[in-house]
Amino acid sequence: MGLAGIVLALFGLCLALFHPVLGFGFVNFDDGLYVAQNPFTASGLTFSGLRWAFTRFHGGNWYPLTLLSHMWDVQIYGLNPAGHHLSNILLHAANVLILFAVLRRLSGDCWRAALAAAIFAVHPLQVETVAWVSQRKTLLSFFFCLNGVWAYSRWAQTRTKGFFAALLAVFAAALMSKATAVTLPVFLLILDFWPLRRPEPLSRLILEKTWLWLMSLAAGFAALAGAAGVSWQALPPAARLGHAALSYAAYFREFFWPAGLCVYYPYPASLDLSRALAAALAGLALGSGAWRSRERRPWLWAGWLWFLAALLPMIGLSQVGGQARADHYMYPALPGLAAALAFSLPLSRLALIPAAAMVIGCSAASSAQLRHWRDSVSLFERALSVDEGDFLAHNNLGFALLQGGKTRQARIHFERALELLPTYADARTNLGICLALEGDAARARREFEAVLRAEPRSPGARLNLEMLGKLEKLGKSQGLDRHRHPEAPSDADRGYASP
Prior knowledge:
Shape: globular
Low-confidence stretches: 476-499
Number of strands: 2
Largest sheet: 2 strands, antiparallel
Distance between the termini: 38 Å
Order of helices and strands: HHHHHHHHHHHHHEHHEHHHHHHHH
Structural class: mainly alpha
Radius of gyration: 24 Å
């Protein structure tokens, strides 16, 4: 198979695997926040929308290019979810092809580069990023990062100023898509080691990237300023380090055995110190092995460093939200492990067997995982099958059931969410709506008032109380708008340190 055949095969692989999402809808987990219920985005490309995208933090983040991409989709497809899903598929396919082109050019090894790109294309950890419309920011940011890698490789080999200018431009675009692109300068240092094998001293390699470091620093401070992080008193440094070790271990395990994947992993109530120490020691052992083999197998050390660096902004050292980890965090980290695995295979006919087995196995697992994303009910039923104690999944499943008119089933999930997290204001507001729809106006009022006592500025509870008062005066309680309360906002992608 020639180069054109490999390119077509990789593109076809992406389309074949992910085309079912064209029949999926939006989910009630950030999709409304970014697209369906956002008045600026849902209006398409407008001057007021452009000004808003570039001048405001949204969901604790500043990513104007991501918001513009959503506006562009609305301009073309309206609010038809199929078009928004199609854009995600095409962006993922573009990332796969650019990754293949970069690895092939830098290593000179077409087949191993193709295998690494194929693993990146179909791995089950990628399903969340592609199937979730709200993860446009991850896809778009990494698209610009990969273009930055390409521009840097050309600059390193030719020293043409135009390539460095292109690198600065695409890096700025990556940061304006998602702030986790701050790790790009670290990626470039890793590439200096392998596959570029640049002979310059490390100090010089660091200094030549000064403008990139400054851009990363500025973007990092801006992201942290817009994010509502967990205080250091509530989560001490030792606990953060322990949870980071456990998260790295979970991501590494899921790369090789992607079982139990779901949309939300709640932060554990306590730290299992023995497991954290075991995870840290295992990571040190793996890193030590990769370091010792850096002369004979440099791709192992480079891949390991890429994996560590890509996850660093989201590993929880600066914790934002209530999630422990997320599948989409692995999107920029997965190429490191995929390349380390692919370049470790020998060039022989026998190596085709495990290579094909990996791609086929990943595709089958991804196809199964993809079915959980067809709607909000399926998505959060899956989350509860993985962890019944997931308070957010109970709330969002309840909200999806409520929108479908299944009030009694929805109430059960809201009540369970509050059993797990009594301070969960969204679940309490949604429970109040359920009770009002069932005719229990007195209890509904108590729930709304409880939210207002805890959060005096809650617009949802205040509005529902006003509506409930009007309905009580009319002697009825069945007219409350079940769609009035907005979807529960995501903790999984709010802020720099945690998309």
